[in-house]
């Protein structure tokens, strides 16, 4: 089984590449964001640490994680964000290792791990190869602002927490340049799939 770390800055198109690869037989896509959300909502140890660090108001009266409230608290505050990451990222790494073992046992040929913060969390060290999806910054900002319904300034603030695209490109095994339309991106994802021995 080959493990692929798929990353790229906000608005780069990495999710579209992941979705395209998911359509191939023998591929399983694992989303770091989904893993983190599940762990924060369901893992007793992670929940305990969140309450200890951020207070009981991290969860509502129904026991559900107040994601919006937590996001407001940590974004824009380096220390708070670092504290959140110190709780969540080790749990995500452990869940990734479990998912890799499960995928291998089930005969998955390629496990794609899509993570915006792949390099920042050391995830690049636990996959066989890294694919970076990239696009010009102004294009990424416009895409993300339109998609999320937020200001371009808010997108640029979020970008400051991500690795410099030039550094990411230099550390990647493969780069997918997303400078065209969705059909062009799908064609690039298909070429990547062929390089991985799929299709």
What topology does this entry show?
Elements: E1 2-7, H1 14-22, E2 27-31, H2 32-42, H3 44-54, H4 67-74, H5 78-105, E3 110-114, E4 129-134, H6 137-148, H7 152-159, H8 165-171, E5 174-177, H9 182-195
Parallel strand pairs: 1-3, 1-4, 2-3, 4-5
Shape summary: globular
Approximate strand percentage: 5-15%
Ranges with pLDDT <50 over ≥5 residues? Answer: none
Can you summarize the main beta sheet? 5 strands, parallel
Average pLDDT score: 92
Query: What proportion of the residues is helical, as a percent range?
Result: 40-55%
Could you characterize what this model shows?
This protein has 199 residues and is of the alpha/beta class. The protein has helices at 14-22, 32-42, 44-54, 67-74, 78-105, 137-148, 152-159, 165-171, 182-195, and strands spanning 2-7, 27-31, 110-114, 129-134, 174-177. It has a 5-stranded parallel sheet, sandwiched between helices.
């Amino acid at each position: 089984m080959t493990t692929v770390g798929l990353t790229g800055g906000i608005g780069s198109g990495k999710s579209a590449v992941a979705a395209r690869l998911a359509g191939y037989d023998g591929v399983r896509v694992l989303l770091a964001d989904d893993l983190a959300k599940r762990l924060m909502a369901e893992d007793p140890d992670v929940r305990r640490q969140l309450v200890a660090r951020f207070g009981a108001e991290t969860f509502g009266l129904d026991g559900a994680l107040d994601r919006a409230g937590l996001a407001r608290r940590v974004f824009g505050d380096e220390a708070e964000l670092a504290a959140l990451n110190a709780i969540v990222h080790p749990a995500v790494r452990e869940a990734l290792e479990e998912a890799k073992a499960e995928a291998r046992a089930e005969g998955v040929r390629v496990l794609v791990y899509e993570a915006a913060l792949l390099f920042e969390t050391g995830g690049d060290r636990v996959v066989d190869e890294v694919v970076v999806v990239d696009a010009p910054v102004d294009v990424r900002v416009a895409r993300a602002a339109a998609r999320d319904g937020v200001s371009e300034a808010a997108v640029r603030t979020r970008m400051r927490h991500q690795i410099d695209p030039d550094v990411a490109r230099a550390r990647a095994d493969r780069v997918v340049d997303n400078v065209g339309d969705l059909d062009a991106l799908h064609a690039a994802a298909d070429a990547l799939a062929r390089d991985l021995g799929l299709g």
